[in-house]
Prior knowledge:
Number of strands of chain B: 11
Order of helices and strands of chain A: EEEEEEEEEEEE
Helix content of chain A: under 10%
Helix content of chain B: under 10%
Number of helices of chain B: 0
Shape of chain B: globular
Radius of gyration of chain A: 14 Å
Radius of gyration of chain B: 13 Å
Number of strands of chain A: 12
Order of helices and strands of chain B: EEEEEEEEEEE
Largest sheet of chain A: 6 strands, mixed
Strand content of chain B: over 45%
Distance between the termini of chain B: 37 Å
Structural class of chain A: mainly beta
Distance between the termini of chain A: 41 Å
Largest interface: A-B, 25 and 25 residues
Oligomer: heterodimer
Amino acid sequence: AQSVTQPDIHITVSEGASLELRCNYSYGATPYLFWYVQSPGQGLQLLLKYFSGDTLVQGIKGFEAEFKRSQSSFNLRKPSVHWSDAAEYFCAVAPMDSSYKLIFGSGTRLLVRP
Amino acid sequence: KAGVTQTPRYLIKTRGQQVTLSCSPISGHRSVSWYQQTPGQGLQFLFEYFSETQRNKGNFPGRFSGRQFSNSRSEMNVSTLELGDSALYLCASNQNGGSSDEQFFGPGTRLTVL
């Protein structure tokens, strides 16, 4: 079955520290891969996406993600976290089977210490 | 351009009632998707519409239905409400309806069933 796993429910980092959020997917072929962020009371905003090509993709707000086919992973990183990055982060896949849907991971809540 | 708008933002209903939620996509977007977000089940796909046609439906009971109008606006309806239907319902739109297209999410409708 298609699935997306985000093993960390909560992560706390100090402001200015680096960040890595983990995401693994289970799917027959490499799907389209996305990271979204949700701030309290808000909808989801796309941070970045991967379809093919360069395995390191750059997104908005200084985020980047690296696709590793051998590990079925798509981890999100940021070199220096800002207090405004505190939010919930969702990894998602869109299967290439014309199902026109996103399958989301369970999310990782990021807390930022001052 | 205005973003995706959802009305109402908050709704309180009692068990057994029905409810209709509305979503206005970004101008020019032809695809609208709906997702249910709960603490226990996370983000789950409900259905997707493109040019007034439902192309996919998630694993939800028949009490959940939707439609899309010729101006791409969409509604979803839940009949015979149950306590477990309490959730944040998110609508997303994209321009061309492709699986790789960026989904733009609205702020959601928070439904509480008492």
